[in-house]
Amino acid sequence: MRGIRLDHGAIEIQMARSQARARLFGRPAEPIRLGRFVVLRRVGSGGMGVVYEAYDPQLDRKVALKLLRSDVGGSAVLTSQLRLDELSAEARAMARLSHPNVVTVFDVGEVDGRVYIAMEYVAPPTLRGWLEAEPRSVAAIVAVMLEAGAGLAAAHRAGLVHRDFKPENVVVPSGEPVRVMDFGLARRLEPLFERLERSGMSALATREGVLTTQLAGTPLYMAPEQFHPGAIDVRADQWAFCATLFEALHGRPPFSLGERLLGSARLRLPTEARSGPIPPPLNAVLRRGLSFDPAQRFESMDALLECLRPSRRRSRAPLLGLAAAAVIAAVTAGLLGARPPVADPCPAREDRLRAAWSEADAAQLHARFAESGLAYAATSAERTAALFDRYGEEWIAAERLVCLLGRSGAEARVSERGACLDERLEALAVTRDELLEGAAGDLPLTVERSVSLATRLPPIRGCEQAQLVPTTDPLDRQARRRLSRHASRARARVQARRLDAAEAALVEARADGGSDHPESEAVLALLEAELALLRAQPERAHERLDRVIEVAGRERLVDLVAEAAVMQAEVEAGLRVNASVARDILRVARVALAVSDPGPQARGRLELVQARVEYDSSHFEAGRRATEAAIEAFTEAGARGRLKLSEGLQMLAIQTFGAGEYEQARAFAEQSEGLQLELLGASHPDLAKTALVLGAVDLVDGRGERAVAQFRRAAALQAESLGSEHPHVAQTLINLGNAYLELGEHAAALAEYERALAILQPVLGRDDPRVLACLANIGGSHRGLGEASRAEAVFREVIVRSRGLGEPGAATLSLALGNLARALHDQGRFAEAEDTYEEALVLRRSVFGDEHPKTAALYDDLGRFYIDTGRYRDATPLIERGKAIRSASFGAHHVEYARSEVSLGLLDLARGRSDEAIDRIDRALDRLERDGRAEARGDARLNLARALSQRGHPGDLERARALIARCREGPAGAPYVAELAAWCASLGGRAPCD
């Protein structure tokens, strides 16, 4: 054995051999030594190493000796002096921590190539053993956890984070204080504090610092952020503490490991424990402490314990009732001895919060929403109240931190943050009033928009940045309060889409001196711009935003500059459809956001605008990256960002849909739908948007019946909220008609289009582009029904009306000309069709550009027309051009590229090269069968059957018969029934049409 390194296995082998010799030879067992320590017995093990009961002859006392595993620290043997120095520094930090609820560390060192930590020996049981010994009441469990939490809080104040808090690391000895042990995973925060002190900033002004990026801990109790690289701080211990408390109460962990890794689980809090009822405030502590977003947890362990501990200052029912409070008082007094009460220097200001939002307000909200009679009213009230509750919790935590900052001497920062928090509380109160006191006629819209309104309250975290860049002429406190009140009222009405009421609030604000100060002017101009944006008034919005940037820039109000720049990009992208200008403005917005750092929701909004710009420019990959960045930002925003996160997922679904990645689009849409169900309930009209995306995916995937069901669901949800005659319902009916076309049910499609037209035309006018697009769909239905002359008449009407609109009608005109050309082509009127195709192509290049997929589609159509008329030389460059555009836009593996390959196959077939045609169309069909639209699959099947029939090799006719059968039996061939019949007639009923 000489020369072999000692490890815990060797120690236990030596112990076993010594005991065996003692039994065999009747002599005392030889002591096993590790350095100066005499190892007595093994008492436990964990991820970091093994713990032995040992005796320290130098200090003449029993110790717990922890021998670290050989692979801890990333090397096979822990002999690194750097690592030893690090552990020694940790031990010194822990040794300085003297608290009755923390196990004392005596020494750390290295012997025989292993690192050990010697600490106070505390007799078992651990918390787990204590729980298993006999049934424990809720009160007793909370009493023990309060003591353990006090130990954690003391460690945090000393600059230590545990990172491995669990039942095995809490000792509950009889007649002694509860102890927290095993800080072997902790890392010191002192270097960060030292850097802060050197920079002149109080350590209290931070979130208690950055900890480490190393993954360590016991997976069942690790906070979600510990599974990912990045900063870890004291809030990870809060998660572990609450997970341990939950398990102590219910006998199971709150989440599975998979749920925490995915970060998508919903916490279910039973109202009954194994030993009795759970008071609601206790569940409130668990819900907050187990938040997946660290920012949503308590600001400190002390704050968590304050909420867990019974308090006579609370107006609500005490956590455990008077009897439980007596139990806790008795247990604490018995274990720790009588101590004089210590007054909290910064008690929570719940009285101020209740003036803005209370349980009575929540009850009134539920009652008022119920008056609407809407199916989703109760869900909206519940979700809105929960968001207001969370906002109130954040405000309480931030207000207490301001108090602590004040006690640390940071008076200047306290003044600015305190004023900011006053404004946030004012915003909450004003928003509450808007929901509870609005006009009865506005109630349905109020219910619909309530959750969105609650998520758009100004973020509490923004107060951390209050006045980092001082303005040249700051508002006085009274003027700021007036501005905050007016702005909050106008903002709430804008978010609730009560636009006339919002405008009245802005007029009132200006009458109350809102234009007398640059900051007031900038804030109100920004709200006026948002109002103009919602009213589709681009010039007014642009003028107001220019004013914001001018005034706010001069006054160094960078956050307002950033917000105005993002909104200006929205104007250019949405109302003016000017992607290049929007892209330039977004660059300015990024710089302003980087300077002001207003929070993740603002960054997410910018990325969504960027995504729209890229998507509208057919830059699908750039759009996808921007949307993913938006999703990341909204995820960081936590509960208040989840609604925007669902919108981001919805946008990403649309983008991947546009790129032809239909299954990915479905996955994103389903994730969005899941969030909406959680936040809004199953009956909320916003689910209609996601149903439309899912229906579109089903439509292109050839699942016409599923698409019909999705579109019908969307129409029903919209009708519940908006009424059956609303233009949004009409747009959904158009999609429903498209789904019926996919099924080959042209008559049903025509009926839905006509219903949509009857809704749109009286509201929008007969010449609105949306009305004309619907009319064009009606023409397409007539063409599908074989009514070419009726289709032609409808397309000509659309063309005449579109020409009368000038530039606004150019896009509709270009599409209608293409449809008319196809209808003339169907009728064999080739000269007229050629002229119309060429006019449509010129216009489409002008409207969409020569690199756009819509232009590629018309190149392809005109190329096929030339094939039908025998002009193969003219067809070739057109089809090749369409293929090049599709390749550049989508790539060579996309379904649109496959459609160009089918067209080139037809060109080969027309020139008698059937082998090349079959090879090319066969490859394209293989791609289309997996992802293509049904009508594209039908086109490829029919043309492959023609190529096989022309070649006539053994087996070709049999395969052609199978393809023809598939065209006839399913929706994929429905658009080609007439063409198939004409081709079979030309064969005189011979194979493969026999």
UniProtKB/TrEMBL annotation:
Residue windows of the TPR repeats: 730-763
Any GO MF annotation of the entry: kinase activity
Domain of life: Bacteria
Residues involved in ATP binding: 66
Keyword list, A-Z: ATP-binding, Kinase, Nucleotide-binding, TPR repeat, Transferase
Record keyword Protein transport present: no
Coiled-coil segments: none
Domain Protein kinase: 37-320
InterPro entries: Kinase-like_dom_sf, Prot_kinase_dom, Protein_kinase_ATP_BS, Ser/Thr_kinase_AS, TPR-like_helical_dom_sf, TPR_rpt
Keyword Iron included in the entry's annotation: no
Name of this chain's protein: Serine/threonine-protein kinase
Taxonomy of the source species: Bacteria, Pseudomonadati, Myxococcota, Polyangia, Nannocystales
